[in-house]
Design brief:
By secondary structure, the protein is mainly α. The protein has 7 helices and 2 strands. It has a two-stranded antiparallel ribbon.
Length: 239
């Protein structure tokens, strides 16, 4: 069966499973895929970035809180909330954007970097090489962190540290969605939300990765009928 991946401009040839409620499920890994190995690949690719950003946050955030607790706390909250919007915008307009190839290093570079990386993730959502960003964010993070110190410590430096740490958390949430089935209510919710995005109906909606908070006001929510089916609670067991 040929599946058109909405919003990606690509197709996937393979088995597409449909649940009884009619909502297409994401493409499943073909026989022979070792999911434990793919999960290990995804984890090891993101360990260095996790360590780097977390150590940075563990240094900057306590210093900022010690200097001006209330100000730093406000900037931490602002950083976390800002990241939820950034992740949505990047996912929708960059990772799902179109960057046609052309002459010049910039146009070709954007095409090679952005036009294929996330497309590969949608074509092979079980592939550990395409779950997390790896070292891609390091140049941006380095520049932002450096520039942030032009402002007082409890303000921009704390804000950027919170943004980077939120990015780390979001990437591990994304990892968990594809390789684990945690029973906590939040993880059940976000797994359904994101896997709907991977389904045949969701390629151009449900762009939030750590929550669906921005999908509603920005016009990309899961349709009400599908939401009702996705989040319907299972009936209690018969006695």
């Amino acid at each position: 069966m040929k599946l058109e991946l909405a919003g990606t401009g690509m197709t996937y040839r393979g088995t597409v499973l449909k649940s009884r409620d009619g909502i297409p499920k994401p493409a499943v890994p073909p026989p022979g895929i070792d999911m434990a190995k793919e999960a290990w690949t995804a984890r090891t690719r993101f360990y260095p970035v996790t360590v780097a950003y977390t150590l940075y946050a563990l240094v900057v955030l306590p210093l900022g809180l010690r200097a001006r607790p209330f100000t730093a706390a406000c900037f931490i909250v602002a950083g976390v909330m800002s990241w939820t919007l950034v992740e949505y915008l990047v996912h929708r307009y960059v990772l799902h954007g179109r960057f046609p190839d052309g002459k010049g290093w910039l146009k070709h570079g954007l095409h090679r970097f952005f036009d294929t990386a996330h497309g590969d993730h949608h074509l092979r959502p079980w592939d550990g090489l395409h779950i997390n960003g790896g070292f891609d964010s390091l140049p941006f993070a380095f520049v932002l962190a450096l520039l942030s110190f032009l402002a007082p410590l409890p303000t921009a430096p704390v804000f950027i540290a919170a943004v980077l740490q939120s990015y780390v958390v979001e990437e591990w949430i994304h990892y968990s969605v594809h390789f684990h089935q945690f029973r906590w209510r939040y993880f059940v919710y976000i797994r359904k939300h994101h896997l709907y995005h991977h389904s045949g109906r969701g390629g151009d909606i449900a762009f939030g990765l750590s929550s669906g908070i921005w999908d509603r006001p920005l016009g990309t929510p899961i349709p009400p009928k599908d939401r009702e089916v996705l989040y319907r609670r299972a009936p209690p067991p018969a006695r």
